[in-house]
């Protein structure tokens, strides 16, 4: 399947994200201190780091779920004050609504023509014909596909992924990587992937940032050809080693 | 009554273990109740037990037939059912609204919950003397008591159901742009429904209990009145028939709730008949 097989909305494209001098503490714990990061429109950024390194906090700030203590979080040149309608978030768990069928989950916001849009997006993620299933009968990978479709229906310009593939088995994870890469290539939204899987970061991202104790320990471009093979490309192995050293 | 049905249930488990086939296994759960009925009949006929205090099953069956034909059984059952339903609608409706309100809106909880928790601990049947003083012995008194009886189970379980909604789903809903109304409609109420239905089943139990007591104290119609009236004339058969009718009405209410559960909780893994199409 080539990129052209996906539905590409007219509003395709991404928005830039910029954080400048951001501070965020929880009680006495300073999670992010004087933090600066610029993500150009359409970039696929992976944020790698240990648990408690501030990855999730960074994500919640960009999503508008939490507010920074000071500094500026901007999306498309504007300060983030609340949830931004062009930002969609994929959680670690699929967070499907159990009492809504697959198609109703995808069209959870019930926009105009939501059924048609949801059906088309489900086809994009390879779940054609599962529209009327209950979430409880789906496998873990299928649930994350539904969650991905739910994020995509509203044609987001920024997609945030908070370790959404962490709980999947290795084969399903590779399938999801390919799917995400293809959709991202077709639609061009800005993507921030939080992960502690270095191989995943190198397989998907244009750029990898390593977060350690609330600061950027490494900021590295990944200029491997796309679509990427997950097989051991010597350059990918070298990049993975460099990232691991910084974590 | 309750004991025989429990014993019947054990018998069913046994028969499944023995793997009896066809008619035999279908009838197996009924062997114990039927045996007990036979014993009862024989004991009553032979004078082992006083037939005036414990009339034979055949006598009760004859009474059932007589009261069915003269229309009084239907009349009293209808009167009781009407009170039960009206009380359930009023008390249950108020309990549901109060539960949703206190569950969703903190000021309502602060204002209402501790008061309601305090009132809840008063056995509502203790209010009977007061209720008779307030409303006399007409319909209002009985409907009032039933309403109070069903209010609390529904209130508490609705409140609990609303409060225990998965916060992750609520967060997801806000990230995906659901407004307050959509959140309540699509996430909170359906999520609270299993708990609300548990409340409903408890409420149905309280409903009949309250009604029995209320009708035996002051009424001119209803199953409770029928049995109390029969007691005056030592018509033990009618008393026993009344008890059986209550049991059947209770069972009917339970079957109805189960049917509702099965229908509205189709999404729930526990209610899905076919094994899921897991990849």
Supply database-style keywords.
heterodimer; A: 247 residues; alpha/beta; Rossmann fold; 2 domains; six-stranded mixed β-sheet; four-stranded antiparallel β-sheet; 7 helices; 10 strands; globular; B: 279 residues; mainly alpha; MetI-like fold; 11 helices; 0% strand; flat; disordered C terminus
Written overview of the protein:
Chain A has 247 residues and is of the alpha/beta class. Chain A has 2 domains: 21-86 and 159-247, 3-Layer(aba) Sandwich (Rossmann fold); 97-155, no CATH class. Helices cover 31% and strands 26% of the residues of chain A. Chain A has helices at residues 55-63, 102-106, 114-124, 140-152, 170-187, 198-204, 234-246, and strands spanning 17-26, 29-39, 44-49, 70-75, 78-79, 87-90, 158-162, 190-195, 207-212, 215-221. A 6-stranded mixed beta sheet of chain A has the order 6-7-8-3-9-10, with helices on both faces. The longest helix of chain A is centred in the C-terminal third of the chain and has 18 residues, at 170-187. Chain A is globular, with a radius of gyration of 18 Å. Chain B folds into 2 domains: 2-49, no CATH class; 65-265, Orthogonal Bundle (MetI-like fold), CATH 1.10.3720. Chain B is built from 11 helices and no strands. Residues 1-16 and 275-279 of chain B have low confidence and may be disordered. Chain A binds chain B through residues 63, 65, 83, 85, 88-89, 91, 93, 95, 97-101, 108-110, 133-139, 141-142, 150, 154, and chain B through 168-169, 171-178, 182, 186-187, 190-191, 193, 266-269, 272, 276-279.
């Amino acid at each position: 399947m080539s990129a052209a097989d996906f539905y590409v909305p007219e509003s395709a494209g991404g928005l830039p994200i910029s954080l400048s001098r951001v501070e965020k503490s929880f009680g006495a714990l300073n999670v992010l201190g004087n933090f600066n990061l610029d993500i150009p429109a359409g970039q696929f950024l992976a944020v790698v780091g240990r648990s408690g390194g501030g990855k999730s906090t960074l994500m919640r700030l960009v999503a508008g779920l939490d507010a920074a203590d000071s500094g500026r979080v901007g999306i498309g040149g504007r300060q983030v004050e609340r949830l931004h309608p062009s930002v969609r978030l994929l959680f670690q768990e699929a967070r499907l609504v159990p009492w809504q069928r697959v198609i109703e989950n995808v069209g959870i916001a019930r926009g105009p023509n939501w059924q048609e849009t949801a059906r088309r997006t489900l086809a994009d993620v390879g779940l054609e014909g599962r529209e009327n299933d209950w979430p409880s009968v789906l496998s873990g990978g299928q649930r994350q596909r539904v969650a991905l479709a739910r994020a995509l229906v509203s044609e987001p310009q920024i997609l945030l992924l908070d370790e959404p593939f962490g709980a999947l088995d290795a084969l399903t994870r590779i399938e999801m990587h390919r799917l995400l890469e293809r959709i991202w290539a077709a639609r061009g939204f800005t993507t921030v992937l939080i992960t502690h899987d270095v191989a995943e970061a190198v397989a998907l991202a244009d750029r990898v940032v390593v977060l350690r104790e609330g600061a950027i320990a490494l900021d590295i471009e990944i200029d491997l050809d796309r679509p990427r093979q997950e097989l051991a490309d010597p350059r990918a192995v070298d990049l993975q080693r460099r990232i691991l050293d910084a974590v | 009554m309750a004991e025989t049905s429990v014993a019947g249930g054990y018998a069913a488990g046994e028969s499944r273990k023995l793997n009896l086939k066809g008619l035999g296994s279908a009838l197996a759960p009924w062997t114990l109740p039927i045996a007990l009925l036979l014993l009862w009949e024989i004991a009553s006929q032979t004078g082992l037990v006083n037939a005036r205090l414990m009339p034979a099953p055949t006598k009760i069956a004859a009474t059932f037939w007589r009261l069915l034909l003269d229309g009084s059984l239907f009349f009293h059952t209808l009167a009781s059912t009407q009170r039960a339903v009206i009380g359930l609608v009023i008390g249950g409706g108020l309990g549901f609204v109060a539960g949703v309100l206190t569950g969703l809106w903190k000021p309502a909880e602060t204002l209402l919950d501790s008061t309601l928790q305090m009132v809840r601990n008063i056995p509502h049947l203790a209010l009977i003397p007061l209720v008779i003083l307030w409303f006399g012995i007409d319909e209002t008194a009985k409907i009032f008591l039933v309403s109070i009886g069903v209010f609390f189970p529904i209130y508490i379980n609705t409140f609990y159901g609303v409060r225990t909604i998965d916060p992750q789903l609520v967060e997801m809903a806000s990230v995906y742009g659901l407004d307050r109304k959509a959140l309540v409609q699509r996430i909170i109420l359906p999520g609270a429904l299993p708990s609300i239905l548990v409340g409903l089943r408890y409420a149905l139990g309280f409903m009949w209990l309250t009604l029995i007591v209320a009708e035996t104290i002051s009424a001119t119609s209803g199953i409770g009145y029928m049995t109390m009236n029969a007691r005056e004339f030592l018509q033990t058969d009618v008393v026993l028939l009344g008890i059986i009718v209550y049991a059947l009405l209770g069972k009917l209410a339970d079957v109805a709730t189960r049917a509702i559960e099965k229908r509205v909780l189709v999404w729930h893994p526990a209610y899905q008949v076919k094994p899921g199409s897991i990849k």
